[in-house]
Amino acid sequence: MRKLVYGLLTLLLVALVGCVTINVYFPEAAAQKAADQFIGTVLDSAAPAQPTKDDQPAPPKKGSQPSAMLLDLLIPAAYAADTPNLRIQTATTEAIHGRMQARFRDTLTPLFNSGAVGFTQDGLVAVRDAGKLPLDQRAGVNAAVADENRDRNALYREVANANNHPEWEAQIRATFAKGWIERARPGWYYQDPSGAWKQK
User: Fold this and answer.
1) Distance between CA atoms of 106 and 42, rounded to whole angstroms?
2) pTM (global) more than 0.90
3) Please, which residues have CB within 8 angstroms of residue 101's CB and are 6 or more apart in sequence?
4) CA–CA dist 12, 33 (Å, integer)
5) How far apart are alpha carbons 28 and 179 in whole angstroms?
6) How do 117-119 and 125-127 pair as beta strands?
7) Are the beta carbons of 197 and 118 closer than 8 angstroms?
8) Sheet holding 125-127, edge to edge
9) What is the tens place of the pLDDT at every residue in 73-117?
C-alpha cells in the first residue's frame, strides 16, 4: 500500500512539474519595452513639425540599431535567461514600421492634432469626429485610417508569430494599445477602457 501511495505521489509530482515547465509566460516587461521603442520611433517621425522642442534635440531613435539588440541591452542576462526573449524585428515589421512612420508624418499627425481621429482602446485608430473634416477629404482620411489599422493588425500578429506564440497576439495588442495611449501628445484623443473618448 505504501509503495502504491509513493508511486501515485511521484506520478502526480511529475505531472505537475511537466505542466509548469511547458507553460511559457508572456514576457510583459520585454513586450512593453519593445512596444515603447517601436511607438516612439513612429510618433517621433512627425516631431520636427512640432516647434516646441528645445534647442538641444532629443537623440533620434530611427531603428538603426536592431530592436533585438536593444532589448538585449535593456534586459539583464539573468532576467533574460528566465524570461522568453521577445523578437519584434522582422522584415515584415520593418516594412510596417516604415509605412506607419510615413503615414504619421504625412497624414495622421494633423488629424490627431485637430481631434478628427484618435487611438482606440484596442490598439487601432478611428475617425472620432468626421465633422472636423471637409467633405472632399473624408474618403482619403477613411482610407488612411483603414491602411493604418491593416498595418497595426498585421504588426500585432507578426510579433506573436515571430516569437512562435500566436496565442500572444491579444496580449501584444493590449501592450501596444496601452503604449499608443501613454505616448499620445497633449490634445490628442483616445478611448478609455469603456470606449469613451478622452482628451490628453
Assistant:
1) 12
2) no
3) 41, 42, 45
4) 38
5) 12
6) antiparallel
7) yes
8) 125-127, 117-119, 189-191, 197-199
9) 444 443 444 445 688 899 999 999 999 999 999 999 999 999 999
